Amino acid sequence: MTATIRPAIAALAFGLFAAAAHAEAPLANALTIYSSAQPGAVPPEVFRSGGQRGYVVPGYAVVRHERPITLTAGRNLVRFTDVAGLIDPTTVAFKSLTDPDGTRVVEQNFQFDLVDTQKLLDKYIDREITVEQVRGETVESFTGTLLATAGGLVLRLADGSVRTIPHNSGVKLSSLPGGLITRPTLVWDIAAKKAGEHVARVAYQTNGITWWADYNLTYAEGKDANSCKLDVGAWVSILNQSGASYPDARIKLIAGDVHRAPVPSAPMMAGRAMAKAEMADEARGFQEKTFFEYHLYTLGRPSSLPDNSTKQIELFPQVVDVPCEKTLVYYGQQDFYWTYGGAALTDRNYGLTGNKKVDTYLTFKNTKENGMGVPLPAGRVRVSKLDVADDSLEFIGEDRIDHTPKNENVLLKLGSAFDVVGERRQMDFSIDTARKTMTEEVEVRIRNRKEEPVRVIVKENLYRWSNWKIVTSSHPFEKQDARTIHIPVTVGPDKEAVVRYTVRYSW
């Protein structure tokens, strides 16, 4: 051993015993959570006991810990155990707030070979173990050398005989084998100029944690069948399955589509517990601001996120009496997939469907005048209506929204109307191959079995070719885009409205 190597090893060994080998009690925890979850897409099994094996939580977080550690001047070996099990060790950043210029990490190891039953037994192959087996009301013990663990235990006893024992037997081991740990651990080789207690800030990314918004809307009838009002409440749901708990953490949420370089990911175990919802203190709830091309929501108070738990926190106080509009839409071609392709669609039977459902939509404008006017993160929207007979809220439908800026419309599909029915038929079709034209006549019937008039939008796709013209129409129509028209129609109580139009295609 050379003279230059000995001092370095001696300094490292001194740091191992003289410095703090473990991170001490936390000073602060902070998380910024990013979500890539489709709103409402986390399976219910995730929240139930036992979780869902193989489920990958679609989100991640940047975690920041501040911890006191004691260092000696020179080299120190520090074991940091308070890290998430799904940490990305390549993202770890260490900084001594006490001595930022003179203290640095020279080398880092991430130890993640966590102990489990099979690993313990495999470590004891060719070593002596004691197995306890229940026989009636007694327990029989066997001590011998473990030869194999596949399909059960194979034990060679002291007299040379070999015994096979099922896996459900109790096993007594003399100690925990080296190389196995109970928690994921970062091991640092730290070079420090300043001896004594340091405050260290550790930051890293971890998978297994996500958030989304849940909106609870209460619907009330308006002055007519197509107007309404909504009470809007918003909650944040945070799902933590990262393999670590974060007590009294400062929480930030990023709303927006933040790009990450794609990497292969291994399946993760789903969580097994559900925390109780926590009502936010209005004065210390989430504060929103623009941040780069996204929106940042900062919780104004610390909150704890246990591992394998879900927490709900109010996103903003409930907004009442938001004006909305109920719209009925009949889309007779709803179950039909179509595309122009490279030629006109001249088959007269192409695109005929039997859909009779009239869909129900709610729309409102996210404006300050309506009591809203705030950026709405992507989330699932549940709508209920009060049953005055027993003063209870009854669920009437749900939908998902994408990230919605202020002053934009929010459109929700709730379901299909029971008492309003549509019917679409092709009345006539002709084609002139010489002139490269075809003409189609379509009839749409809307029947209203309510005791009040309704307004229905008949949605039609002109799918046969891109060059088209409405030749005749029984009702005024509105062109929505290059291949879609809307025909508004009002249908009286227990009446039927008939819409007819003729379209001519040329190519």
Low-confidence stretches: 1-25, 49-53, 266-283
For the record, give the distance between the C-alpha atoms at the N and C termini, rounded to a whole number. Answer: 88 Å
Mean pLDDT: 83
Total of DSSP H or I helical runs spanning 4+ residues: 2
Largest sheet: 13 strands, mixed
Residue share in helix: under 10%
Structural class: mainly beta
Radius of gyration: 33 Å
Percentage of residues in strands: over 45%
Count the strands?
29
Shape: elongated
Task: Put the structure in a nutshell.
The chain is mainly beta and 507 residues long. Among the domains are: 117-172, SH3 type barrels (Roll); 321-374 and 400-506, no CATH class.
Describe the structure.
- The chain is mainly beta and 507 residues long.
- Among the domains are: 117-172, SH3 type barrels (Roll); 321-374 and 400-506, no CATH class.
- It contains 2 helices and 29 strands.
- Strand 27 and strand 28 (484-491) form a beta hairpin.
- The termini are far apart.
- The model is unreliable at 1-25, 49-53 and 266-283 (pLDDT under 50).
